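Researcher: For the annotation table, I need structure tokens for TetR/AcrR family transcriptional regulator. Please keep the output clean. Sequence:
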Amino acid sequence: MPRVSQQYKDDRRAEILAAARKCFLQNGFHRTTMQDVLAEAGKSAGAIYRYFPKKEDMIVGVAEQNLDDVAEVLRTALIAGNGERGVGQVMAELLEAVVERNRDRQLAAMALMVWSESRHNRALAERLEAAMVAMTQDMAVLVRERQQAGTWTGVPADVVARAILSILPGFLLNLAVAGPGAVVEFPAAVRALFPN
């Protein structure tokens, strides 16, 4: 029997998660059945259960994708600046990139679902907390640079970073509930709040 490559496995897993995401967004986590995902993915039960023994594993998988998307966008915005841009510019780019990814993946709606589910799903809560810690550490690097320049002194960099990043959940809530038109001026607002 020929061996299956890791790329093949990763691709199949991604296909299943895309189907699960679509089902979850249509029906919610708890009204979506494994049969719904099977039908959407066009896969056999064995193929699905090989990667995700239970629905909760799919929920965590979709949530991880969402969290990874946002963390990647933040890292990209931080790296692109090479220390030359301020917090306002980085946050504005983060918000703009979230809107772009929201078009295809409904990032904001999924974020609301993940936050709600994390109150009852320990694995999801732990993954969400780990993502928040990692994003805070990434932003704290930029905050420390500003503190060395004399801004935001007297408060630990990680606390300032977490406070700044708390803009993101509010933005996602507005995007999910009111739509892209309601948040179009948010990037300009964070640039104004945090000028270079």
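Researcher: And a one-line annotation?
Model: The chain is about 75% helix and 0% strand.
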